[in-house]
Write a structure and sequence with these properties.
Layout (H helix, E strand, L loop, with lengths): L1 E6 L2 H11 L6 E6 L9 E2 L7 H10 L4 E4 L2 H5 L2 H7 L4 E2 L3 H8 L1 H10 L7 E4 L2 H9 L5 E5 L8 E4 L2 H12 L11 E5 L4 E10 L2 E4 L4 E2 L2 E3 L3 E4 L4 E4 L6 H21 L5 E11 L2 E8 L6 H8 L4 H9 L14 E8 L16 H6 L3 E4 L2 E4 L2 E4 L3 E9 L2 H14 L18
Parallel strand pairs: 1-2, 1-4, 2-3, 4-5
Antiparallel strand pairs: 6-9, 7-8, 7-9, 10-11, 10-16, 12-15, 13-14, 15-18, 16-17, 18-22, 19-22, 20-21
Helix pairs in contact: 1-10, 7-8
Bound molecules: adenosine monophosphate (AMP) and glycine.
Glycine binds next to loops.
Length: 421
Amino acid sequence: MRILVIGGGGREHAIVWALANSEKVKQLYCAPGNAGIAELAECVPIAVSQFDELTTFALDHAIDLVVVGPDDPLADGIVDAFEAKNIPAFGPRKNAAEIEGSKIFMKNLLKKYNIPTAKYETFTNYEQALAYLREQQAPIVVKADGLAAGKGVTVAHTIAEAEQALQDMMVNKVFGQSGGQVVIEEYLTGQEMSILAFVDGETVRPMAPAQDHKPVFDGDMGPNTGGMGTYSPLPHIDPAIVEEAINNIVVPTAKAMVSEGRPFRGVLFAGLMITENGVKTIEFNARMGDPETQVVLTRLQTDLLDIILAAMNGQLDKIDIQWSDEAAVCVIAASEGYPASYPKGRAISGLEAAAAQGALVFHAGTAKQDGQFVTNGGRVLGIVGRGRDIAEARARAYEAVSVIHFEGMHVRSDIAAKALR
Ligand code: AMP
Ligand code: GLY
């Protein structure tokens, strides 16, 4: 088959890596890709937002299947655009991707179908939001309605901090249109967990659970990022709780989307909090997580293409999906300054040494200049160690991190530490 992957981050590098291992794949393209992806697929310099150019490319190159990585094009209807040209594309249509694209849509859906989530109010008017906030107690959570590159959520520890976030979103428009409407919600405490699942309508096939670390610094300090590191499995979480989350949250949500006339086909990713009152939904994403994908696909033993084709053909309930018993830990190497502004073009060394140790290094923001890998994004690399358990996988990931270098490289040193306590 001839496959086009859309995106150019670490998640897409992991997807391309998994697809490259499939015997059915004859030709693999990635738009726009990155310097690491270029080792496995032909990178095509078309941005993920250029739907006309992408569909034309797919027709010209007889693409059999498109696999979409990132949230923005899904929210903008990239799957509908391919389908309009009769090109099969794996990912939710625009009306289903709204589960991620609008937090207000998501919260209202969960409320309507009695699916557990934090209590909340939504606002389109700044004065009303501010008045409401002033009657609440901290900690409290303020969320921009729309997509904001993983940065649209403020967990405020004081009302003043929440007011600032509200002002940034609704008045200063730091997230543009995405902050025009906001959700103010109850602060939940507990362990976080993510469940990703292949979904086709009402059929839900969960992947191995994974856990991300969103804040930029150790001990969950500093601003939220797209994600600084992940691990899978979650040995400290009772499998009965994972079961509860699938049965009470993920499956009912897939059913609710069907009932709403917005059947979801693609990867549904539930961000969850295990509270004293049961598992509650924090958010849904309409795609694989980044860097959750880097650990989850590392553990997938079934051919990823077979699973995607089963979903495309209405056979997702029939396919056998196997996961490795091995653990995987992914540590993100970021540019100094991320998630705010950061430099680019810094030479990266040690990639071969890390690979020689057995680490998998997925590129997120890299480019090649004169034959040399250089930094080209906020998150630069996802360095994955594998082992019998989390402790071994974690030690191997950090061993690989220690041989990789670029000026200003920042890693959290406590990825997966929670799993060992
Ligand atoms: P999100 O972008 O929705 O994944 O939120 C980013 C992070 O903010 C989550 O991973 C949580 O750590 C935190 N968060 C979001 N909503 C809540 C909430 N209601 N209570 C506590 N923490 C939250
Ligand atoms: N790692 C979190 C996300 O992809 O949204």
